[in-house]
Design goal:
The complex is a heterodimer of chains A (about 60) and B (about 650). With about 60 residues, chain A is mainly beta. Chain A has one helix spanning about 45-50, and strands at about 1-5, 15, 20-25, 30, 35, 40, 55. Chain B is about 30% helix and about 20% strand. In chain B, helix 6 (about 615-625) links the parallel strand 30 (about 605) and strand 31 (about 630-635). Classes of the chains: A mainly beta (about 60), B alpha/beta (about 650). Strand 4 (about 30) of chain A pairs antiparallel with strand 32 (about 660) of chain B, so a sheet runs across the interface.
Chain lengths: ~60, ~650
């Protein structure tokens, strides 16, 4: 699998500095620069999060008021 | 004399006649012979009287007579035994002088030999003991041998006694066991005898029954055979008759076939039959759809226990069927706030009796226990309640209700019927009334102004009127139908530019119909609507993130989403499913080259696990704008994802997109 980390204030992952990210996951990514260029290969999402230094911390879900 | 024989006694069996016996062994003197009598029974005794001993001259034989004739006694009877025994005295009285005769020496030696023989005979009858070296005994310990003998004998006796005791115990046990076995055996024999008797009795009965059944079956078989024979005869007759009929039909068919025109024959040969089948099938589907439509259009009928609040309903009113527990433990009060035109007042009637007159814009609360009404209707559906008909109407008939606002608590409203003919601003009017089953109007349309949250969390709501927005301007319907149980929502004449969460969490919702309307939806509008078959045309007003994937719209049918007219508003669109909840009903999606699709949280287009085939994906790629910020289009699991060629993918990547699959 290939992964890509994208900084986003609505992201479900954050690093030690509490900066939020989202992580994209795909079997393969065809980019303008070629296959999987700019994406990182890991065995699974957990490995990717470890490598990126991220933890899962979803934003609170909107409830039925 | 010589002593050639080592014998000291002779035992003779008496015959009742003989009384004189020969003693063959040498003796020195007559007095050394003893006569012992052994009766057949009783103790042996020595005879001292009536004994006559006659010694021969040559001294080799001695004759002993007992009892002597002179005694007058009878000879010893048959069965008696007589023992003649030599008893040589253990003395010697020879005196050796100057001359000793050889006879004297001979007699002295003979006496010695006889004495030795006597001793030998006695020793032979003594108890002798062989010392055991293993026990440390020796010949010199003869003085202790008796103790050893007694000890050994005692040990032997004790061993024997123990053995006897054990044998006796075994015998006792064996006897006890034998007694138990005998008892069990006797019981078993008795049981077997009883079982045998019962079996014999049962077999006898069964034999009788079998015999009876056999008799009956034989009779039935006879009857059946007879009946079948009759039926066969009848069938033969019928077959013959039908054969005649078939002949007639065949003849008719032949004549009709002959009458067919060439065109008709051509039509048959060209597949009229299969076409007809298809037409019939299509008609059946249509009929099924019509039946469903008819069923859905059947007028709703309230539960039979409920009073019909539509009958004799006053116009220009809002009428509610409201319930409470008889002990007021549930739904203790009912609150509604109304605004009326011209700042007038409104009246509140309960079961036809006016209970309050309230100024416009002020809430009225009916506390059932305080009212302590004697009127009302007891129902058991949906639960045991005392219900009342509450009617709200302007005090002056010339005024109208302009706004109805609920108090957002579950207050036991079961049914509402609105007879106002003007548009009303509904503000959370029925929100959280979980028992509300229907909202009706005389026309089937509810004339509205705004209607945010009007039916929110009405989790029993099945019957809903058409929402008719009669006045111009933008409307606001946030949460309007969130979490209900309706199947179809129809909205007319609406221009709604803020529709947050309007339709989410409707598990039964199948269709949203927009008539002369345009709505913009937010990314939660269709959340948790798994049966929704279509997504209405979306009116793009502001910038949109259209996330329709939480969860996926798995109920979509042949849906094509067309955003080709977007004029720079769609920032993100997500209609994806998952591997286990696919959105195969989505068949197409196109965007506009002017769509920004610039949301920073990719993928900016997500059609993963949808029904987009290769052609649809290529169409999507062709419609996508050129981007510069690493935008991602996720097509993982889409029907045609694996069929895309390098050239197909190059359409998207050539515009700066990353395609993931």
């Amino acid at each position: 699998m290939v992964y890509k980390k994208i900084q986003n204030e609505q992201g479900n992952y954050k690093n030690q500095q509490n900066v939020r990210f989202n992580v994209l996951e795909a079997n393969e990514a065809y980019t303008p620069a070629g296959k999987n260029v700019g994406w990182d290969k890991f065995e699974n999402l957990g490995e990717a999060l470890t490598a990126y230094g991220l933890v899962y911390d979803p934003l609170s879900q909107e409830v039925n008021p | 004399m010589t002593v050639p024989i080592n014998a000291v006694k002779k035992q003779i069996v008496c015959d009742g006649q003989t009384r004189t016996w020969q003693f063959d062994y040498p003796i020195l003197e007559e007095e050394t012979i003893e006569v012992w009598v052994k009766p057949p029974q009783g103790t042996c005794y020595r005879a001292t009287d009536h004994v006559v001993i006659d010694r021969e001259s040559d001294e080799d034989y001695t004759y002993v007579t007992y009892p002597a004739l002179s005694s007058g006694l009878e000879p010893l009877a048959r069965g008696y035994q007589i023992v003649l025994r030599r008893s040589t005295p253990l003395t010697q009285n020879i005196v050796f002088g100057s001359s000793v005769l050889p006879k004297t020496f001979s007699e002295a030696f003979d006496k010695t030999v006889l004495q030795v023989q006597n001793l030998d005979e006695k020793i032979s009858r003594c108890v002798r003991y062989q010392p055991d070296p293993a026990l440390g005994e020796s010949d010199t310990q003869a003085d202790t041998f008796l103790g050893n003998v007694i000890s050994q004998a005692n040990q032997t006796i004790q061993t024997a006694a123990a053995s006897v005791t054990q044998s006796l115990a075994d015998h006792d046990n064996s006897a006890t066991s034998h007694a138990a076995i005998r008892q069990n055996f006797n019981q078993a024999v008795t049981t077997l005898q009883t079982a045998l008797f019962n079996e014999q009795t049962a077999r006898s009965g069964a034999d009788d029954s079998l015999q009876t059944s056999l008799t009956g079956l034989t009779g039935a078989l006879t009857d059946e055979t007879s009946a079948r024979q009759q039926a066969d005869a009848t069938l033969q007759t019928q077959l013959a008759s039908q054969g005649d009929a078939i002949g007639v039909v065949q003849s008719t068919l032949n004549s009709k076939q002959n009458a067919l025109t060439a065109a008709q024959l051509s039509a048959v040969n060209s597949g009229v039959t299969s076409t007809t089948v298809e037409q019939v099938s299509a008609q059946q589907e249509n009929i099924s759809a019509i039946m469903q439509a008819l069923e859905s259009q059947q007028p709703w009928q309230p539960h039979s226990q409920w009073p019909d609040i539509r009958s004799s309903a006053n116009w220009n009113s809002a009428i509610f069927l409201v319930g409470h527990k008889a002990d007021y433990s549930k739904y203790p009060s009912f609150t509604m706030k109304a605004q009326v035109s011209n700042s007038g007042t409104y009246d509140v009637f309960v079961d036809g009796i006016k209970q309050a007159t309230t100024a416009s814009g002020t809430a009225t609360t009916l506390t059932w226990q305080t009212l302590s009404l004697t009127s009302g209707y007891d129902v058991t559906y949906p639960e045991a309640l005392r219900t009342h008909i509450v009617r709200i109407a302007p005090s002056l008939g010339t005024n109208t209700i302009t706004r109805l606002e609920g108090n957002v608590s579950d207050q036991g409203t079961l049914w509402a019927h609105i007879t106002a003919t003007n548009a009303i601003h509904y503000e959370y009017t029925f929100k959280n009334n979980a028992a509300l089953e229907a909202v009706t109007t005389p026309t089937g349309e509810l004339l509205v102004d705004w209607y945010p949250g009007i039916f929110q969390n009405c989790t029993s709501l099945k019957i809903n009127p058409v929402i008719n927005c009669t006045t111009s301007g933008n409307y606001y319907d946030t949460y309007a139908f969130r979490n209900t149980r309706v199947k179809k929502i129809t909205i007319k004449n609406a221009t709604i530019n803020y529709s947050t969460d309007a339709f989410r969490e409707n598990p039964n919702l199948e269709e949203i119909e927009l008539i002369n309307s345009k709505m913009q939806f937010d990314d939660r509008s269709f959340n948790s609507c798994p049966k929704l078959k279509n997504i209405p045309q979306i009116w793009l007003v502001g910038n949109h993130n259209l996330n329709f994937n939480n969860p996926g719209l798995t109920g979509l049918e042949n849906t094509f989403l067309d955003f080709s007219l977007d004029t720079g508003r769609v920032n993100k669109i997500d209609v994806s499913g998952t591997s286990t909840n696919r959105v195969d009903g989505l068949k197409g999606l196109v965007v506009s080259p002017s769509s920004p699709l610039a949301d920073s949280n990719g993928p900016q287009i997500n059609v993963s696990y949808t029904g987009l085939d290769r052609g649809a994906l290529v169409n999507l790629f062709n419609s996508m704008p050129t981007v510069t910020n690493n935008q991602v289009c996720n097509i993982t699991g889409a029907t045609g994802a694996a069929d895309l060629t390098a050239d197909d993918l190059a359409i998207a990547t050539g515009k700066g997109w990353t395609v993931t699959r």
